[in-house]
Amino acid sequence: MHGRPRKATKQEDPAAAAAKSARLRELQSQVLHFQHNRIYTKEAVSVSSKLLEINPEIYTGWNYRKLAFQHNLNEVSDTDTIKSAIEDELRMVEVALRRNPKSYGAWYHRKWILGQKLVPANFDHEFRLLDKLLKADARNFHGWNYHRFIARLKDVSEEEELKFTMDMINTNFSNYSAWHNRSMLLSKLLRKKVKGFHEEESILSDEFELVRQALFTDPSDQSGWFYHLWLLDQTSTPHKPHLVSSWPSDKLNIEISAQFKEKCERFPIIFCFNQRVDGVNLATVTVNSKLVSSEHITWKPLSANNSRKSKIWVAFLENFNKYCDNSEGLSVEIIVHCCESIVHLKFVMKLSHMYHQEKNRDGFEELFLWDCPKSQEINPYLVSYDPWRLRVESVEEDAKWHLDTLSAEIALFKEMSECDEDSKFVKLTLARLLGAHNSIKSGGSSYFEEMLKLYDDLIKLDAPHYRYYRDERSLVLLDQMTSSKDSLVEYCSRCENSSFSCINPQLCINFSGLNLTRVGFVERLLWVQILDLSHNNLTSISGLEALQLLVCLNLSHNQIMSFTALEPIKSLQSLKVLDLSFNEIGSHPVNTSRYLCSSPLSHTCNVTETMEELARENIQIGDFWEAILLFESLQLVQLDMQGNPVTNERCRVLVEKVIPCLKWLDGKPVR
Amino acid sequence: MAEIPTSDYPTIDPTSFDLIISATGLSASLLAASASIAGKSVLHLDPNPFYGSHFSSLPLPYFLSYISSPSPSPNLYSDVEASSESLPEPSRSFLVDLVGPRLLYCSDETVDLLLRSGASHHVEFKSVDSSLVYWDGKLCSVPDSRQAIFKDKSLGLTEKSQMMKFFKLVQSHISLTRSGATTESGEEGGVMIPEEDLEMPFVEFLKKQRLPPKIRALVLYAIAMADYEQDNGDSCKMVVSTREGIETISLYTSSIGRFANAVGAFIYPMYGHGELPQAFCRCAAVKGALYVLRMPVIDILTDKESNKYIGVRLASGQEIFSSKLVLDPSYQIPASLSPRETVVSSNLSSYVAKGVCITDRSLEPNSANILLVFPPKSLHQEQSTAVRALQISGNVAVCPSGFFIVHLSTPCEDAALGKEYINSAMKALFNSRELPAESVEAQTKEEGESVEAPTQEEGETKPTLLWSCAFVQELREASYDGAVSICPMPDANLDFRNILSTTRKLFQNMYPGEEFIPQNSAPDNIDDDADEGSPE
């Protein structure tokens, strides 16, 4: 049934085939005729039986039967009649299923009949039928769906169902459906804390032991690996959402430059959670300072799809600059009552002592240059922001079992990878285990190099999935680079050539030329104002929306294919300098992300004023509406777009119109 | 030969046949069936009142007297030693195989012959529930399939992966061999075992695959069914080559799942192995063979001038003539007629030590019929042969329900040594009835023979022996010389494959050019559903 190549259907005798299709057409038109004229006589219904027995895929036939069934039983109250009518229907479905055990219509009809609960169902018969079906094909998911349906109808306990999955796995462990059902049932039992399922850790340990038997017996069988993945997820992901990091971090003294104070009226506060949460609002977050009271603060989720849930939440302190002149600065205290825990944050904002020297300089009179030399060594203390402490505190307690389990699994799979060098499953699982271990235990023995090596191997070994491996590799690399202050400082340089509103010191994070394909671990980069991601393989920048302080962003020499892929930039209100040169924007005529982001096409945003204005001036918007939507929301001063297929004179004109404050375009001053 | 009143015997008519066979063992019955199918006229005799000769299944009292009596088969069975005079009751309900322990592979030739000849209509089978190996003083199940490896509790994870990898290699080799690929043509999508590896000793090949000792032992003795210690290099009596080993594994794996209602690789006939010769006799009878039991051949008639065989004189005094004669190995033939050509048999030992035990509890809960092997050295340091055991139960109708018969055997050169192994195997499996557990332990410690002294806990869980007996059977080889052939004795193997090929050779020698039970020779050709149903 599985793992066997499909055989070509036998060539039927053309005459017989023609006769068959003529008969089918005849039956079909009869049934449609009955359907239209609401003829539900015995003879009519039996015609539909004939049709469905030949071809159970004709859904109208099933619907007709449902109507007929309801019509004919409408005025019947005699149980025996009802019973025999139901039995007839069930028998008919059985015949159809014998023709095609994977007919959606037939299965649905059966469920519909029994779901009416007109008479007590004959469960023994149903289970016998299922037994036969699953013997013929243990992985027929229709069968499994129906099994779940019948079990629910009969009110079979989840424990018993769990035993059933075990039996099926014992018969043949290469059974995705059985493993999957097992994971669903166990999740339920553990969540409900049913008797015998209190000790989640010991249950999961047993499951690890079980799936190990399958994995080691036949590492090339995928079904067990999927179950292992589920178990790993249970072991590595904390159940409760919690705060991973925030901007500003606790006890932070923020030195604010004169420009920042003068130009910026809003100061962002950012929360990063480990999973998507909702309910960050006035009721759950208290902000205490002499500047504002909580009421004036609006919390906004930062998510691509306008969902109310998000990992990242942002609020702005308005008019903060009025209050940080005095010597103590402005002190702010925040209490977060989220997710069954309370987090206290306290930070102070002060004007930089370099205030007076900087006073006369205005931002962006000169072109911002990205090639800031790695002049001198950066002292780690300069990175005053410290998201790492929060992480360590929040995870390490209660993680002993998780760490032990992960360590044991890591040891096992290392052993396995030694004797089975070319198994992609082993390598991938090992990499995921190491990652899970890393995510729980920070510092200490980190497995970054090993993970990078594994993903490098996988990219070579399993070319069809190299994109996935490259993504994972990017995340490992980002994790490694941002894992501690010391490692991050390696990628920092001081930006001397610019002068713009900033929070001191002016540090540029340089992640260029690292083959990154995606962005991650933004929660450790919330403070960053200058970020260089050039010369990578980025196709998406999702995640960057969290970097609310970002002023300069270099995305040149990547593989970004469209303006819509830049959607996360829209929420970066302080962004001034953007380098998009030498990407692939406009290279692909069909741009799939276009349908995912907000656009006038999907009515998720309206035709804007800018567009109307452009239309009045007779400037063809044409294909540039994404660009308009992107740029009109930003106050860019400097933009580089050369080296993209989309770039032409028309585009330049449009951009200059859309961004009135633009001073530099492609390295040249805007008139 | 004692005087027997001639009046008791029927008169046989006609008096001339193509073939006279005196013995109704499996080989003799197959010859009768195949000759009848080939259109020969056959007279099939047996001196005993029952079918089967040395392949029979006898009620316990008859079994005991059959192997103990000096006649009619002098010297074939010796050293009979029963645990007690009193037999478990009802003693006649215990059917004991003379050929035990023995099984059929679902895919082996015996099954094919049964199907081809139509004899399958006269026999029903039950499958063997589990296969065990005695290792480190414990009984472990033999992981003989992917699913069994998955479920096995005694193998480590690495061992599982090694074993499965080995199975996959063998499987890929087998399927490529079947599809006609050769070692030279490096087929994609699978690996073949290179020719030079096929010639090397199987044990060396297993070592080359880096399999640990335990898995080597499992593969060699519990799956490839090697009988002799393979690990001692040149001194090994019968080295199993990789090719032979792979062939047996191939048979083993193709047996699993051949019949929908058979659990594992092996099946056992209802009412015992004695049913098999009877089934073939019925085929022969359907094709016209004439059957007379209780009819010993008392003399062989020869042509006075050429001194060649012409016929036999029966106990009834009647003289019957034929061109060919097949005799039982226990028949004392005049030296002048004694066949000189032996059919080459791969059995090197001259004896096989056997044991029969009766217990009231299964060796393993939830299993009725169990195959078990004690690999070499598992019982004694010097043990150089594997001891095989087969537990059969009431569900194959060889004993009252609730009881179990356990057959044991091991090939041996020296009868005493063979019996010693059988006895230690029994000790390892059972508590003896006379001695409580403690004293058994004490005794074995004193004797210091047993490598693994049973511990207290094991002693408690072992079944108790109700009755047992050990004996030694001589192995006599089949032979032929012109008109007279001697058919083979049961050998020391677990299956009938050797006996079958010997029988085939005898038949081809007797009737060159005739096919040995050709395809579709079944009467009325009613076994079209052969592959679907046989064992019930």
UniProtKB/TrEMBL annotation, chain A:
Recorded hits in Pfam families, A to Z, give: LRR_4, LRR_6, PPTA
Entry EC no(s) = 2.5.1.60
Keyword annotations for this protein?
Answer: Leucine-rich repeat, Prenyltransferase, Repeat, Transferase
Determine the domain of life of the protein's source.
Eukaryota
Enzyme class, broadest EC rank:
transferase
Q: Which reaction does it catalyse?
A: geranylgeranyl diphosphate + L-cysteinyl-[protein] = S-geranylgeranyl-L-cysteinyl-[protein] + diphosphate
Recorded GO terms, molecular function?
Answer: Rab geranylgeranyltransferase activity
Question: InterPro entries, from UniProt?
Answer: Leu-rich_rpt (IPR001611), Leu-rich_rpt_4 (IPR025875), LRR_dom_sf (IPR032675), Prenyl_trans_a (IPR002088)
One GO biological process this protein is involved in is: prenylation
SUPFAM superfamilies under this entry? L domain-like (SSF52058), Protein prenylyltransferase (SSF48439)
Could you name the Gene Ontology cellular component terms for this entry?
Rab-protein geranylgeranyltransferase complex
Q: Look up the signal peptide feature and give its range.
A: none
What family does the Swiss-Prot or TrEMBL record give for this protein?
Answer: Belongs to the protein prenyltransferase subunit alpha family.
- Described purpose of this protein according to its UniProt entry: Catalyzes the transfer of a geranyl-geranyl moiety from geranyl-geranyl pyrophosphate to cysteines occuring in specific C-terminal amino acid sequences.
Name of this protein: Geranylgeranyl transferase type-2 subunit alpha
What's the source species' lineage?
A: Eukaryota, Viridiplantae, Streptophyta, Embryophyta, Tracheophyta
Automatic annotation (TrEMBL), chain B:
Subcellular localization is given as: Cytoplasm
Keywords annotated in UniProt: Cytoplasm, GTPase activation
Ranges for the region named Disordered are 437-460, 514-536
Supply one GO molecular-function term.
GDP-dissociation inhibitor activity
- The yes or no answer to whether the keyword Cytoplasm is present is yes
Q: Which Gene3D superfamilies match?
A: FAD/NAD(P)-binding domain (3.50.50.60), Guanine Nucleotide Dissociation Inhibitor, domain 1 (1.10.405.10), Guanine Nucleotide Dissociation Inhibitor, domain 2 (3.30.519.10)
Q: Which SUPFAM superfamilies match?
A: FAD-linked reductases, C-terminal domain, FAD/NAD(P)-binding domain
The cellular component terms of Gene Ontology attached to this UniProt record, alphabetical and capped at eight, are: cytosol; nucleus; Rab-protein geranylgeranyltransferase complex
Q: What is its main location?
A: cytoplasm
> Which BP terms from GO are recorded?
intracellular protein transport; small GTPase-mediated signal transduction; vesicle-mediated transport
Q: What InterPro entries does the record tag this protein with?
A: FAD/NAD-bd_sf, GDP_dissociation_inhibitor, Rab_escort
Role summary: Substrate-binding subunit of the Rab geranylgeranyltransferase (GGTase) complex. Binds unprenylated Rab proteins.
Name under which the protein is recorded:
Rab escort protein 1
Say which species the protein is native to. Rhynchospora breviuscula
What are the top taxonomic ranks of the organism?
A: Eukaryota, Viridiplantae, Streptophyta, Embryophyta, Tracheophyta
